[in-house]
Write a structure and sequence with these properties.
- The protein has one domain: Metallo-beta-lactamase, Chain A (4-Layer Sandwich).
- The strands form 2 sheets. A 7-stranded mixed sheet has the order 1-2-3-4-5-6-7, covered by helices on one side.
- With 300 residues, the protein is of the alpha/beta class.
- Bound molecules: zinc ion (ZN).
- Zinc ion binds next to helix 3 and strand 12.
Length: 300
């Protein structure tokens, strides 16, 4: 009987959690987990982590999803459950799955890395074609909305949400050229954007060396939990060690192949195979990474 009651409790917990749009992973820190789908595998705009932080006077939204439907869901959840206004939206970088929901918050001040507007505009053509291909009509109702408040590298910005400060930090080129993290001083939670992937194979759209440096920098911070761009929020070690393992193996393998005169084709077939079993969507993403990093490191 007792076992039955416990099982029922677990079932209730699971069902009620599965239903909730967001999960409170630390006091006042809410995350909606995106699905692990590749862009080329039935992309629906809901594949990355988005969410918000609640202060006494205001709420900051962090990333808005890949279209207005996802953005609206987030906004609706907030307005139905909290009386504080949404005062800030923060974009962690320019990738389509994280920013095309900005339109749902178009009257709110949007913060981003100093390179963010340019990065978003440069990618707009490709992203809008992808959005249209995979999301049809939804795409035309999700136009690009750019950040207007920009954070310089080395000049952190503190935002006050009322008895709660969050710190925005802009990084030199790493996962992309516009990576920005959000640190909640109250709970020491770090919202890393795609500087951290958990479970899902990391993607590199910036600079492999800068990426490794950014993770080493994050490793030195006082952090209770990391909310990655993709994957389950986790401890700092659990979040950064596998990332560093993957990226350093990628860097070292490719350095070795280039030094040995091996071709890009050879690298595509052999690089980082030791990591294959550790990550989801490995083959498709690893191939993109090898391509990117080989061409960059060839000239170093
Ligand atoms: Zn992403």
């Amino acid at each position: 009987m007792r076992l039955f009651t416990i099982s029922l409790l677990f079932l209730f917990f699971f069902v009620s959690n599965a239903k909730a749009f967001v999960k409170e992973i630390a006091p006042g820190v809410f995350v909606h987990l995106g699905k692990h789908l590749d862009i080329d595998e039935g992309y629906d705009g809901d594949i990355c982590n988005i969410g918000f932080i609640v202060g006494d006077d205001a709420i900051a939204v962090i990333d808005t999803g890949g279209n207005y439907l996802v953005g609206n869901q987030l906004r609706q959840y907030i307005t139905e459950n909290f009386k504080q206004p949404i005062k800030y939206v923060i974009n962690t970088h320019a990738h389509l799955d994280h920013v095309y929901g900005n339109i749902s918050f178009d009257e709110v001040v949007i913060y981003g890395h100093k390179n963010l507007p340019k990065a978003m505009q440069l990618r707009a053509n490709i992203y809008e074609r992808l959005n249209e291909k995979y999301q049809g009509k939804v795409a035309s109702s999700s136009p690009l909305v750019l950040a207007t408040k920009l954070v310089e590298i080395g000049q952190d910005v503190d935002l006050d949400l009322g008895n709660r400060k969050i710190t925005l930090s802009a990084y030199p080129v790493a996962h992309s050229e516009a990576d920005l993290t959000v640190y909640d001083q109250k709970t020491q939670v770090l919202w890393s954007g795609d500087l951290v992937f958990i479970e899902r194979t990391p993607s590199i759209d910036g600079n492999i060396h800068g990426y490794i440096k950014a993770l080493q920098f994050i490793n030195e911070l006082e952090i209770s939990q990391i909310i990655p761009g993709h994957g389950i929020p986790s401890s700092k070690e659990y979040a950064t060690q596998p990332m560093l393992g993957y990226l350093m193996t990628l860097r070292d393998d490719i350095r070795q192949y280039i030094d040995d005169g091996k071709s890009l084709e050879y690298a595509l077939e052999h690089a980082v195979q030791s990591e294959k079993e550790k990550w989801l969507l490995f083959d498709i993403q690893n191939e993109r990474n090898v391509n990117q990093v080989y061409l960059m490191m060839e000239w170093e």
